[in-house]
Structures are given as C-alpha cells and as structure tokens.
Specification:
It is built from 11 helices and 8 strands. By secondary structure, it is of the alpha/beta class. It has 2 domains: 231 residues, Phosphoenolpyruvate-binding domains (TIM Barrel, Alpha-Beta Barrel), CATH 3.20.20.60; 37 residues, no CATH class. Helix 5 crosses helix 6, helix 6 runs parallel beside helix 7 and helix 7 runs parallel beside helix 8. The mean pLDDT is 97. The structure holds 3-methyl-2-oxobutanoic acid. 3-methyl-2-oxobutanoic acid (KIV) binds next to strand 6. 3-methyl-2-oxobutanoic acid binds next to strand 6.
C-alpha cells in the first residue's frame, strides 16, 4: 500500500517531520522507496540535474511523463508527485486539467505539483475537484526565474513576506494537500507553517517546516555543476563514480578485466571442431 495524502497530513498532526526527495529514474526511485521515504517528487529539476538544461524552463510535459513512469515503476510505498512543467497549467483551466490528468492516468503518479500562489488558486481548486491531489509551491519558483531576476531568496521585505503568507493561505483554501516553501527566510517559513492548516515542505526554508525536500542528486553529490546553499552532501557519488570508471579503464587497458570469472566457457569438443574449420 502506498502512502496517502491523508497519512501525509496525519504526519503533520502527529508532529512527525515529513521527508521528501526527488527521483527521476527507476533504480534510484527503488532505493529511495526501499529506504522508507513517504513522498517522492519527480521534480522538473530533472531538466537541470539529469538532462543538462540551464534551468527548468525547457522541460517538456513528455519528458516529465516519461520519467514519472519510471519512478512509479520503481516504487511500491511512496506517494509519487509529478511536477507540472512550465506553461502546462497556465493557458486555460481545461489544459491544466488535461495535463494534470496525464500524470495520474498515463504516468501513474498519485499527485501533481504546480508553482504559484493566489494566482493559481482557481487552477488548484479545479484540479482537486477532479480528484487529483495537488502540492503547491511558493517562494522561489524556478519556472519564474526571469520574472524573479534569478535564483534569489524570496519574501525578505514586509510586503513580500505578507504576499507569501496570503499565497499559502489561498493554496490551502483551494485544497492543496501540502505546500513546498522554497528559499525563504526561516522565520517566515515558521509563521506560514503555523498559520496554514496543511503540511509545509521546506527547501532552503529552515528547520521549522512540517517536512523537508531535497534534490537527490544534491544530497548524493552526484550533480557537480554547483552545490546549492541549502543542500547537504551525504555522499560524494560523483567522486566514487569517477574513481570506478578510471579503475575500469585501467583494467581494460592493462588486460586484467575481464578475467575467467566474467567469461563464458565452451565445450572442448566444440572448440576442437572450430579449430578444424
Ligand atoms: O523540481 C524540483 O525538484 C522541485 C523541488 C526542489 C521542490 O520543485
């Protein structure tokens, strides 16, 4: 049985902090799932950490669906959230509903995430009305980096802080089951968490949220173009992979790989026949 949105909300009520991680492929999702993580986000960070784009803006719906399917195949317990990419929920409510439905029906996700606050409340409400759980996302919303003038901490001025609280309330009223708070001051995240009645999941928003989300490639030290300030590396897989690849290249070139152990034998009589040919 997978985690449900009811169980995620219950975790907040019981004061149990909610861990969430991103995943983009079958094998990694399987490991995260087997580690007991209740929420997996197939984030559009896919574009940067897996596909090599400079931002999340070029990520397409087809790319997101493709990777969401792989993550769903790799998981049994986690609730999988598919991230709706740039401009797939803005043009009309009909398009937003149609695209959200594709994550659930085609890709097998249990929920979708979309960026934006009060301005997205109507879309959220309609998607939720169709029976699709929605996770909100406010603060630094990477799909709006041009509007935000870059990857910057949000909510630092009194007006901006009040705006974000209003956004969070509007999303909660519209029916989201949780809200990602990205790159906002710790004290603001704490107030929002106290004042809204759905779980907040922070990234770069300090320790007082109901949950925390990280990009898997950041915490594993797999993505090395840059390390975000909010990330902690629990492993340095990029270094380990480079060392393993270098060892493989050495062994292939010096003839010590493959050995008999990695080879297949053939019957002596077949070999003898072969030699006579
Ligand atoms: O795309 C993503 O990975 C995200 C998380 C950082 C919340 O939106």
């Amino acid at each position: 049985m997978r985690f449900t949105i009811g169980q995620i909300k219950e975790m907040r009520e019981k004061g149990k902090i909610i861990p969430m991680l991103t995943a983009y492929d079958y094998a990694t999702a399987k490991m995260i799932d087997e580690s007991g993580v209740p929420l997996i986000l197939v984030g559009d960070s896919l574009g940067m950490v897996v596909l090599g784009y400079e931002s999340t803006i070029p990520v397409t719906l087809e790319e997101m669906l493709h990777h969401t399917k792989a993550v769903v195949r790799g998981t049994k317990r986690a609730l999988v959230v598919g991230d709706m990419p740039f401009m797939t929920y803005h043009a009309s409510i009909g398009e937003a509903l149609h695209n959200a439905a594709r994550f659930i029906q085609e890709a097998g996700a249990q929920a979708v995430k979309l960026e934006g606050g009060e301005a997205m409340a109507e879309v959220v409400h309609r998607v939720v009305q169709c029976g699709i759980p929605v996770m909100g996302h406010i603060g630094l919303t990477p799909q709006s980096i041009h509007q935000l003038s870059g990857f910057k901490v949000q909510g630092k001025t009194p007006d901006a802080a009040i705006r974000l609280l209003k956004d969070a309330r509007a999303l909660a009223d519209a029916g989201v089951f949780s809200i990602v708070l990205e790159a906002i001051p710790t004290a603001l995240a704490r107030v929002i968490t106290q004042k809204v009645n759905v779980p907040t999941i922070g990234i770069g928003a300090g320790p007082y949220c109901d949950g925390q989300v990280q990009v898997i490639s950041d915490i594993l030290g797999l993505f090395t173009d840059f390390v975000p300030k909010h990330a902690k590396q629990y492993a340095r897989l990029a270094d380990m992979i480079k060392k393993a690849v270098a060892d493989y290249v050495d062994e292939v070139q010096n003839g010590s790989f493959p050995t008999e152990k990695q080879s297949h034998s053939i019957d002596e009589s077949v070999l003898a026949d072969l030699q006579r040919e």
